[in-house]
Automatic annotation (TrEMBL):
GO molecular function: DNA binding
InterPro entries: DtxR_MntR_Metal-Reg, Fe_dep_repressor, HTH_DTXR, Iron_dep_repressor, WH-like_DNA-bd_sf, WH_DNA-bd_sf
Keyword Transcription part of the UniProt annotation: yes
Family note: Belongs to the DtxR/MntR family.
Domain of life: Archaea
The UniProt record lists the keyword Cytoplasm: no
Gene3D superfamilies tied to this protein: Winged helix-like DNA-binding domain superfamily/Winged helix DNA-binding domain
Organism, as annotated: Halorubrum trueperi
The entry's keywords: DNA-binding, Transcription, Transcription regulation
UniProt domain HTH dtxR-type: residue ranges: 1-62
Pfam families: Fe_dep_repr_C, Fe_dep_repress
Name of the molecule in the record: Metal-dependent transcriptional regulator
């Protein structure tokens, strides 16, 4: 998964949480990047036809953007569940964030055969815990840094 896919995944999750366009600030906060960096990538996604950005209103994914975002989210859930359920990694969330940028579709597909993915994936993702709801261990809610 590349950086664009990480942004698409984040926009998708924020859109669902906000029940509307995702604000640039919320995207930047979620990815721990500056608003300027978020705006730059949003512009690139818009050029590729994956997102639509309306100044002061936020970002919406196009149909193609939603498909890519759901694929990226599914890959993230696969990585997370493999780390937590199969390997028993305590800091699975942090590791999954690191690995999602370098795991390609082939590796994700192979990991998928090991974790026995649920049919509701990627709708199993819980933004409150930043984790797949199908984890065999309870994920604690993400603490806000405010």
């Amino acid at each position: 998964m590349n950086t664009a896919d990480q942004y698409l995944k984040t926009i998708y999750v924020v859109q669902k949480q906000e029940d509307g366009p995702a604000s640039t600030g919320a995207i930047a906060d979620a990815l721990d990047v500056s608003p300027a960096s978020a705006n730059e990538m949003i512009g690139k996604l818009e050029e590729r036809g994956l997102a639509e950005h309306e100044k002061y209103k936020g970002v919406r994914l196009t149909d193609d953007g939603i498909v890519r975002a759901r694929d990226a989210l599914q890959t993230y859930c696969i990585i997370e569940r493999f780390l937590a359920n199969v390997l028993g990694v305590e800091e699975f969330r942090e590791e999954a964030h690191e690995l999602e940028a370098v795991i390609d579709d082939t590796v994700a597909d192979r990991l998928d055969t090991i974790i026995d993915r649920q049919p509701e994936c990627p709708d199993c993702f819980d933004p409150e815990t930043d984790a797949c709801a199908c984890l065999e261990i309870a994920a604690a809610p993400v603490e806000s840094e405010q």
